[in-house]
Amino acid sequence: MDSTPSPSSSSPFDLVSSALGRYIPRGGAAAAGPAESQDDPTGQQPEHDHPAVGRPEQILGAVNLDRELRVTHRNLEAPVFAGLDAVIGSPFVDLLPQGDVPTVTRRLRQVLETGEAHVARVQRLRRRDGSELVVSMSILPAAAPQEGLTVSVIAMARRLHLYAAETAIGTSLDIGETAQSLAESLLAWGDVAAVDLDFAVWTGEGVTERAQGRIRLRRAALVPDRAWPEGYVTLGEDLPSDASRLLSQAIRRADAPQSIVLPDREAIERVLGSPRLVRALVPGDRSAGVACVPLVLEGDPPVVLGVVEVWRRADRPFADSELFDLQELVARTSHHVDLARQHQREHTQVLALQRRLLPRSGGKTVQTASVYQPTTPDSAGVGGDWVNSFPLPDGRTALVVGDVVGHGLGAAATMGQLSMEARALLSAGLAPDEVLEHLDETVTLLDDSESGLAAGYSALGSTCCIAVYDPVSQRVALSSAGHLPPILVSPDGRAGPLPVHPHPGLGAEFALREPFGVHTFVAPPGSLLALYTDGLVEDPAVPIDEGIGRLAEAVAAVHPWDTLQQAARRVVSEVMPARQRDDVTLLLARLIGYRKGDTATWRLPARDDAAARARALVSALLRQWRIRDGTRDSVLLLVSELVTNAVRFAGGPITVRLIRAGPGLLCEVGDTGNGRPRLGRGGLLDDAGRGLHVVHRLTSRWGVRWTDTGKVVWAEVVR
Fold first, then answer.
1. pLDDT tens, 248-281?
2. Sheet of 366-373: strands edge to edge?
3. What is the pTM of this model?
């Protein structure tokens, strides 16, 4: 023993040492074990791996520390602790893996300050040769009048380690964390542990029984964390294709997944047959023996999810009992790996849906940036918040934000349905309030007894806000269904929430339903519009108005030269509640509009000469824009046809608008009629003689949108 007994017989160190005295076998190899272990370069005793019959395996030790956390006494005589350099006067943390030092140091100082013991922490201790020992560590305060701590360590017996390892591995649904936990648990059987997963498992795809020649393995976990030889396959890398094929063939004997053991380097080199594969798969010169255990998903037939490799030095061969325990641990945890795979698949699908709904580029008239941050990083936390911005065919831009009740796949599916429906209706020319009326009806239908409620999910109370920006008139039409008011920052820096008429939300009871209002306002170039969900501003500690006010201040601080995406992230970080309770979504839109020289608008009376006047005005403008003759002739014919139809069938004042937008010319003719022009099946004139076949052949696309006073027929010509 390296210490003398403590004067106080009641100290925890003496109590542990007393227990050691009762359980250490008398005489023989046990007494000689520590002396032999000091000279053994492997730090291991044969008695530890193969205990003699009838001899109990000693697994208890103790270390005394002073207030500086340095070793003052130690009792680590059992062979299982051989190689632990708990030198008197050295810091206790020298025994710990580097990554565990902060956590264990905090625990040690906490026991010093409070006097309350910290018991049964599963911990790894480093031996001098770099290998690690898994122990159950308890931290006990020293008995008065002494100061310091007593750390008792119990080398975890195999069966206890199996239970603890399986419990730790099953705590995460992340495929990487699950593989890492499995690899760390495997260190109890070797010096290096690796988990190589089928690429389909790693990405969350479905796994099936297939030709083993096509298997592709990716290194999902590797411990310990240290510098590896050049060429060695490390975390996140794919194994060479021939190595994957060799491993998959080796573990499938008699067409059934089985474990294999290659006891020495000679056998390894013979099996791999290539120096390149040896460099890729063998973690170092000292690692010469390996046990390969398949991760098998039970079934008929069983499916191999991957391969586990545990490496040892040649002087520590695998005993049959150890291989049995190793196989049992891998078998017990295979279903955790498959659960993580299924979670990965669902998470990938939901995030793909979420990203699909995120805004793309806003175009030349609007700049957009968005931030979406789920409550939790897993698929259960991905919920119903969504934002979208997209150009409409007639040159306007739609900005949409919504919040579907709940989280998970049900909310995400409803979110996707509402988002796509809103986009389709807005592209068809409906006004924001009309779109909300359709979404309200959709939520009601989704929540009937046969679909929504039967599935245990209700979308009632979902909210949505739609803003449509016209870059020519520089006006925004906005409607809201129960959503928090957007923030508008004018070019002069004034900021505040818009006065949106409150509404109970989508799917409200018939008696509570109110018409959706439309709030229209002017947004000069340089204005900044912020749409968001309640998770960004709702904090139980502050009133909601204060949260909205903080958001307005943060958005007002965005400089016109700031990159909009960076500004959006900064706003979220400044405003988001300290304790996030809901998904956070923010959409920033910088409204730019068209240059004055790229648009022209004329108002004409509905007279017989309206078409001729429109042709003259448009012709002069096209010459000024230097539009080529062929395009100019098409535009003049198009304007003449649309104005003639407006005079003949609609009446009232006529508005002609021409927009130069990128590679195209957008022509709009507005009137007071409410009839919808339709193109006949055979290309014949429809709706009492409208020449839509002419419009259809001259343009790349055309459509209709409705206004408060009538409708607008628009058409685009490529110049």
1. 766 665 556 777 888 888 888 888 778 888 888 8
2. 366-373, 584-591, 527-532, 487-489, 495-497
3. 0.56
